[in-house]
Amino acid sequence: MFHLSAATAPGAGFRFDINALRALAVIAVLLFHFDHDLFSGGFVGVDIFFVISGYLMTAIILKGLAQGNFSPLRFYKMRAKRIVPALTVVCGICLLFGFCNFGMIKFELLSRHVRDSLLFVSNFTYLRESTDYFGADAFSKILLHSWSLSVEWQFYLLYPLLLIAYTKIFKNKSPLYLISLLFVVSLGLSIYYAHANANLAYYMLHTRAFELLMGAFAFSYKMKADKNDKLSSGFEILGYILLCGSIVFFDGKLTWPGYFALIPTCGTFLVLAAQRDRRVYRFAPIQFLGKISYSLYLVHWPILTLFNVYSVKLPAWAFISLSLGAASLLYVSVERRRDYAYKCFAAYLLCLGLAICAKENLFMFRYPEDLRFTKREIHNQFYGGEELSLKYADKSKFSDTILLDNVVVFGDSFMRQYAPLLDAYGVKTVRVLNNGCYSSADFYTAAEKRSSCDLRFSAPEKPQLHIFTYAAHHASSTESQTIFSRKLKGKTESSTLIS
């Protein structure tokens, strides 16, 4: 993700300033994840990496197109050789750890995340799971940080094809016109969705692309700008002021990315455009951190979350030491090598295949026979039964005949907890339950509504709405009893049984 230049050691044209930016970014992310109070804006390290990646990818593509020897397949192959080996090792170790230590539900979740990380679609997965990157549930997702790799890979797939098509159609037009258009569209979408759907804005390519394209602007400026020491020095200083200010003063309460993300991305743009080669950049520890930044990014979050599984709070020195040690080992033994060829591809397919098998519950032999339940079976038997999901709901349970002879139970997790009690008393129920969703649309603001909850209040052709239509229609001829209620936003929300 972060070391996309061809060189792995300093040489002609090597950018020490880029390695320094990588070091700053990865340390910011590392300390932010360890303790949000250390650097409350450390999450902007990912945005810095995006700009660097966009810069280097644009350089590779445009130089290849200018020389007439750019090959998309060769480009994809080089990116895969750069990213996939280390990612495969980390995913494989996580999968092995889960196999040996996790129960069925947690292992199924991990295997799904391993699969989607290796397929570079994990950003869609975490969006679908409504994962709050800044929330407590983030620590239950061992590979949550892979979302950024998925965004980058999706960018790698589309970006060169768009540039190739543009240069073929508009032979005499600068690619900057296309880049500028894509930048404006992406920034506009990011600003809109940062307020309308924060998770979508955070995880999706179309709301993040402007950050990668900021790197394209840095490359284009680099090619055109005349050497001016005072100007470039000013760019560099202002850039680091913006970056350090973002890392120190920003926090997870901001609508992100949106227009706030322009501050660290512009800061990165200024440093890249400045092209300064200062002595401090050549300082060995800075260059070392820059070199291992991809490996360090890959290993630090699994280390933190796996210890969190067992409620072990690592001291800062232990977390940093473990992360640096594991990253150094991964860098030396895997990342810096380039001679994997088909061995790497075979290992990738093996890890992906095992993850798919685990996701499909093909490793049930690990458990005693009387405990071999799928996640859906466990959910239905012990945690309240049917959901709003059209994919899994047994529609035969929602017919008029069934409803006449059963109690309809609906609500969120507050209502779900009483479902086993109703079973114990022999109450026949039909259940429509969804965690985190209020029982009435009146309790939602526009910003709070989630797609999984919106199903309850829209699309009347869906079967779960049939239940509510039925309940409302028969309200005058049935006994309606409110058995649980709570105060929400100054209103009372009730969980109701209609028999």
Number of strands: 4
What is the number of helices? 21
N-to-C CA distance? 57 Å
* Helix content class: 55-70%
* Biggest sheet layout: 4 strands, mixed
Assess the beta-strand content as a share of residues. 5-15%
Q: Quickly give the structural class.
A: mainly alpha
Main sheet strand line-up: 2-1-4-3
Taking Cα atoms only, what radius of gyration do you get, to the nearest Å? 26 Å
Any low-confidence stretches, pLDDT <50, length ≥5?
1-12, 386-393, 443-452, 454-499
- One letter per element, helices H and strands E, the order comes to HHHHHHHHHHHHHHHHHEHHEHHEE
Overall pLDDT metric? 79
User: What does the overall shape look like?
Assistant: globular
What do you see in this structure?
The chain is mainly alpha-helical and 499 residues long. 60% of the residues lie in helices and 5% in strands. The protein is built from 21 helices and four strands. The chain is globular and about 80 Å long.
Short note summarizing the structure:
It is built from 21 helices and four strands.
